[in-house]
Write a structure and sequence with these properties.
Layout (H helix, E strand, L loop, with lengths): L3 H8 L5 H17 L23 H18 L25 H6 L37 H4 E3 L7 H5 L3 H6 E3 L3 E4 L10 H11 L15 E5 L5 H8 L3 E6 L7 H7 L4 E3 L14 E7 L11 H9 E10 L1 H6 L3 H6 L5 H8 L3 E6 L2 E5 L6 H4 L44 H6 L4 H28 L19 E4 L6 H8 L5 E7 L6 H6 L3 E5 L12 E7 L1 H7 L4 H11 E12 H13 L3 E6 L6 E7 L6
Parallel strand pairs: 4-5, 4-7, 5-6, 7-8, 11-12, 11-14, 12-13, 14-15
Antiparallel strand pairs: 1-3, 2-3, 8-10, 9-10, 15-17, 16-17
Length: 616
């Protein structure tokens, strides 16, 4: 643990609340005295201000009074500003919005009771989710990809023993660790061999040619424990795991603990939380989805998220049994329901080897209209902000200007590609340069704290650069994905979950076309992930946005604390008022905080926080 002196050196002395209140009162008095002057007095507000900038003195005064009263209520002393306590042990792996009991009472059935329903779980316990008793800080990357602490995830020995021969070949449960076999130790049926077989089935010599064939992004549905995704990442592909919520033995929790991109996404009654034409490949290996059920709605949604010419890879013994007569089917007139439906979707079956089948989506958008056997209508709406919408029986994306076959895409997005997304190229490239500069500042700020001040682990030497204590990063207001691009260009061994807040300009299609991981999310609700799954949270302008929506900043910070691992980092960039309020609330959550003035004449400030490792 750090000494009090070291904490003061790192984060500075916090000003007394009474002194802060006095300063605020002085500011408001000055505003009142200057009220008779022209409105140009407030023209110096920069672009970093909140989106709803007040243009009249009356509204500005009302907002100032509201902020004053809110900050006053926070500064009345320790009797009213109490530290927030810890939740009970039963919430160590708590994921909000997945309450099966409440869903059943609401009349949900046929699998929908296991789906995400935040509207039925509005209660919010103001407490901190504690780590399990045996929790340990994850190993640094890349060692943490192959070995994780068993106490960090909810996986029992019984679940491991019942997980099947494939899983036991891929992982080894030891006393306090779970070790995942390296490629060198896999002599038969290895992940590398499996990936190579997929490449050959789509006409490539090896999986090293995936990028050349236009495969940059892969959606891995039901990813197991992430070994296939880990291999794809080594090939410089972005593979995102999407799997159902599980109270224990979670695929998503284990993948994130290994430093692999993953998010909870139940594929039951709602569409996947991605826009149309998002991924180059969708992969399912024993993901336990009956694809030809519900009149093919699951396959229709896969068609929606696949880009033209993209691939659907399905590996399942059930599929092999259903396709047992596939040879005669190609010469006769009888087809299985799955094969029949893929033909309706204008998919081509490229090949079958053992239990693996690969289909390719058409590159001809007119095929859906011209096909005589096609009876699925074209969706009327365009690329909307699809946010947990019901599965729809219609075809999306055919009229989009983003309908570009994957083999025609090469290299980074050019000006034409950017304009397709409704973004001016000058704004895009200016944003990119801004985040390159910001990243250099962030890294120079955090590096001394992460590498020099980081507590020594028992039996370990002090971590030194470039061995990263940061792997899983979330940009909570990602805009164009500039921070993710800057991290990639700087060769940082991290990946970024780019979150586009609901209601903002929908830049998620642009982010996904850049080859990054991303998702839409309403920050007035909890994020679909397990506790302690991210190392660094970054948010630019999100605090002001939350305030404008009337949502609770305290609940947002508690949610950030839930998904951040112990000793993880937070970087918040916002206006002075929002940052000071967040700093006061952060003291209730026990975060160590430091406010940084950017010294550029604006009201923008940085709030750098670290979550402590507290055992209870």
């Amino acid at each position: 643990m750090r000494s009090p002196l070291l904490t003061k050196l790192l984060f500075g002395h916090r000003p007394p609340l009474n002194w802060l209140l006095f300063c605020l009162v002085s500011v408001f008095v000055l505003i009142a005295l200057l009220g008779s002057s022209s409105s140009s007095s407030f023209g110096a507000v920069t672009s970093f201000a909140t989106p709803d900038i007040y243009t009249s003195y009356r509204k500005l005064k009302e907002q100032a009074l509201s902020d004053y009263l809110e900050l006053k209520s926070l500064s009345l002393g320790a009797n009213q500003l109490k530290d927030i306590g810890f939740c009970g042990k039963e919430r160590e792996n708590y994921v909000p919005c997945y309450n099966v009991s409440a869903n059943l009472l609401a009349g949900l059935k046929d699998g929908e009771e296991f789906d995400r329903h935040c509207e039925l779980s509005r209660e919010y316990a103001h407490c901190l989710v504690r780590p399990p008793k045996d929790y340990k800080i994850p190993l640094t990357w890349p060692a943490g990809r192959d070995v994780i602490w068993s106490g960090n995830v909810r996986l029992t020995k019984d679940q491991f023993l019942s997980s099947g021969s494939v899983t036991k070949r891929l992982m080894l449960l030891e006393e306090d660790q779970i070790a995942f076999h390296s490629e060198a130790g896999m002599m038969v049926d290895s992940v590398k061999d499996y990936s190579h077989r997929i490449a050959e089935m789509i006409g490539l010599e090896s999986d090293a040619e995936f990028l050349q064939a236009g495969v940059h992004t892969v959606l891995d549905i039901g990813c197991g424990f992430g070994s296939f995704g880990a291999h794809l990442l080594s090939l410089k592909l972005m593979a995102l795991c999407v799997a159902a919520y599980e109270s224990s033995g979670s695929q998503v929790q284990l993948a994130l603990e290994r430093g692999l991109p993953a998010v909870i996404g139940n594929f039951i009654s709602k569409q996947l939380p991605f826009p149309s034409l998002s991924y180059d490949m969708v992969h399912c290996a024993q993901c336990e989805i009956v694809w030809d059920s519900k009149d093919g709605l699951f396959l229709i949604d896969i068609d929606r998220v696949l880009k033209p010419g993209g691939y659907f890879v399905l590996t399942s013994p059930t599929t092999r049994q259903q396709q047992g007569s596939s040879t005669s089917a190609k010469t006769g007139s009888m087809y299985t329901p799955l094969e029949e439906f893929t033909k309706k979707l204008c998919w081509s079956l490229l090949g079958q080897q053992e239990e693996t089948f690969i289909w390719q989506k058409t590159v001809n958008s007119q095929c859906y209209i011209a096909s005589k056997q096609f009876d699925i209508p074209i969706c009327k709406e365009g690329d909307m902000q699809l946010y947990y919408q019901p599965l729809a029986r219609c075809i999306s994306g055919t009229g989009s200007n983003r309908w570009v076959p994957i083999h025609e895409r090469s290299g980074p997005l050019n000006s034409t590609d950017i304009e397709i997304h409704g973004v001016h190229p000058d704004d895009f490239f200016e944003d990119s340069e801004l985040w390159k500069s910001a990243l250099r500042n962030y890294w120079s700020l955090l590096s001394p704290l992460i590498f020099s001040d980081h507590p020594k682990r028992p039996g370990e030497e002090d971590p030194l650069p470039p061995y990263n204590m940061v792997r899983n990063v979330m940009d909570m207001n990602a805009h164009y994905g500039g921070l993710s691009a800057a991290l990639l260009e700087a060769s940082k061994s991290v990946w970024v979950m780019n979150v586009v807040p609901l209601g903002e300009h929908n830049t998620l299609p642009l982010i996904l076309d850049r080859g990054f991981a991303g998702i839409l999310h309403d920050w007035c609700e909890p994020f679909p992930t397990y506790p302690r799954t991210y190392d660094l949270l970054h948010a630019n302008g999100l605090l002001s946005r939350i305030a404008s929506q009337g949502c609770s900043m305290l609940e947002l910070l508690l949610e950030m604390d839930r998904i951040l691992r112990p000793e993880g980092w937070i970087i918040l960039s916002d206006t002075l008022g929002s940052i000071e309020k967040a700093r006061m609330l952060a003291t209730q959550i026990h975060w160590e905080t430091r406010v940084i003035d950017l010294q550029n004449g604006s009201e923008q400030r940085l709030l750098v926080c670290q979550k402590p490792f507290t055992r209870k």
